[in-house]
Amino acid sequence: MKKISIFLICAILLSSCSLTLEQLFLLPVPTGTPLPTSTNIPTDTPTLTPIIPTLTYTVTPTLVGIKTETTTPEFTSTVISPTPTIIITPNTPTPTIEMKGFLTVILSDPIFYKGNGCQPTSVKITAQATDYLSTFYVVLFVRFKVKQSDAKSEWTRIAIPSKDYSGTFTHELIPDEIKSVSHYHNAWVQYQFVAFNSLNIEIGRTGIFGERLTLLDCVPTTTPTLSPTPTILKP
Fold first, then answer.
1. Strand, coil or helix: what is 127?
2. Quick check: is 45 in a domain?
């Protein structure tokens, strides 16, 4: 009897090993919610149906035997545009003379003569000072320069006082008052003005006027005179 009891106990234990706690103690078993199953519904691929355009043909009648007249010009005129001629003149600047303290320096003639029988034998040189109230007197410097070389004479100094305090200074230059006049023939006469105030202080100076005045030798032309033809009286 003990053996049967032990056998039953062992059978119950073995069967209990395969049972869960809910089945062993008769508890309700939870029911699981099934997961949703995704269903892919295939979409039909659209079918492209080509549209074939309908060609429309227009029949153009061909005229047989008719020729189209083509006009041919008798001549073709060609217009020739004249090409302007451009003359380029070189821009030669005129040399300027410094005029510090002076407005103008004017010559009465560009040529004068030494000797008798030719005119003019003198030339007037006039200078206009800028500051006529402060300019008490001016000094005119003159000298000779050979035209064919660079030889020059020494300066001749000529003082010109103010007469009417208007700033105008004029001197009539004659050949004999220039130094070494007998040694120069057909030469340039260069000149320059320097201004001074009442205290003998220089307040102005021009540049050197180099090739504007010429002194020439006077060569008088002789006019031949006709001697009377003697008249022979016949007896």
1. strand
2. no
